[in-house]
């Protein structure tokens, strides 16, 4: 079956040069964007209940922009002045760059990984005398605490924000040829909003092994997977699939 409509379970990209816009133009398909999940900040009361005292930490591990935003939000709500000496360990350049929203970059001690936490671990291990704080969501990959525990550092997790299922009731009678998912939470949201969802002719695109697994556990047929060596991005995987299907007579 040919592809005419796609729903991406993420917010619409802000960048004008997003590959999704190229996909629409080149393949003449309609692409809509809708967050199946959203982030809500924990309250200062929630943080106190976790027995988190920000003054005890000399370093912070930042794995996402959300972690950056909610660390500084909580610090502000708790009237804690973030010291200039605090060391920042950022998972990627994108996270480190985003940090400039809150601090004067050149005046802070900032350490940056290439892409993921594994890349950052050698830098973290060089600072074993620090006391690390990991601001996170209520949902955390098991591999993260495992990595930190194995490194032998002194660290603590703090839940500063939560992943919440979005209300999608207005989509109940709307049909798309392809639904695109990027996390198990997106799959969970689909079935919490539509418990009786039947896939029928809808194609499912899933990014990452954990998303594929979550979809298959719900009985879904995954038609498009990324990343692969041939299609390292979701837009590339979609384009390849659409070209194949839309060229058929």
Written overview of the protein:
- The protein is elongated, with a radius of gyration of 21 Å.
- It folds into two domains: 5-36 and 166-246, 3-Layer(aba) Sandwich (Rossmann fold), CATH 3.40.50; 40-163, Rossmann fold (3-Layer(aba) Sandwich).
- The chain has nine helices and eleven strands.
- It is α/β, with parallel strands linked by helices and 249 residues long.
- α1 (19-27) runs parallel beside α9 and α5 (117-125) runs parallel beside α6 (143-151).
- It is 34% helix and 23% strand.
- The chain has helices at residues 19-27, 44-49, 65-77, 93-98, 117-125, 143-151, 184-193, 209-217, 234-246, and strands at 5-8, 30-33, 37-41, 59-62, 87-90, 109-112, 131-137, 154-165, 178-181, 203-207, 222-226.
Short description:
This protein is an alpha/beta fold. The protein has nine helices and eleven strands.
Give the N-terminus to C-terminus distance in angstroms. Answer: 10 Å
Mean pLDDT: 94
Oligomer: single chain
Tally of individual helices: 9
What is the spatial order of strands in the main beta sheet?
3-8-7-4-5-6
Range of helix content: 25-40%
Task: Specify the overall morphology.
Answer: elongated
The tally of beta strands, per DSSP, is 11
Radius of gyration: 21 Å
Whole-number total of structural domains: 2
CATH architecture of the largest domain: 3-Layer(aba) Sandwich
The CATH topology label of the largest domain is Rossmann fold
């Amino acid at each position: 079956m040919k592809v005419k409509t796609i729903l991406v379970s993420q917010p619409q990209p802000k960048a004008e040069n997003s590959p999704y816009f190229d996909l629409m133009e080149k393949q003449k398909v309609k692409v809509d964007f809708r967050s199946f999940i959203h982030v809500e900040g924990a309250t200062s009361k929630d943080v106190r209940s976790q027995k988190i005292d920000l003054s005890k930490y000399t370093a912070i591990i930042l794995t996402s922009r959300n972690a950056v935003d909610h660390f500084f939000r909580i610090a502000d709500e708790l009237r804690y002045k973030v010291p200039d000496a605090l060391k920042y360990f950022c998972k990627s350049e994108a996270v480190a760059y985003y940090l400039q929203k809150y601090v004067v970059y050149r005046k802070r001690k900032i350490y940056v990984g290439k892409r993921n936490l594994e890349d950052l671990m050698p830098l973290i291990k060089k600072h074993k005398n620090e006391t690390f704080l990991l601001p996170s969501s209520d949902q955390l990959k098991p591999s993260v605490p495992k990595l930190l525990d194995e490194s032998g550092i002194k660290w603590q997790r703090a839940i500063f924000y939560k992943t919440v299922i979005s209300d999608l009731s207005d989509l109940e009678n709307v049909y798309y040829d392809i639904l695109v998912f990027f996390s198990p939470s997106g799959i969970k949201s689909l079935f919490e909003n539509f418990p009786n969802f039947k896939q029928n002719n809808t194609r499912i695109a899933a990014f990452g092994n954990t998303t594929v697994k979550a979809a298959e556990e719900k009985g879904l047929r995954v038609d498009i997977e990324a990343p692969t060596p041939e299609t390292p991005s979701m837009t590339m995987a979609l384009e390849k699939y659409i070209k194949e299907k839309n060229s058929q007579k």
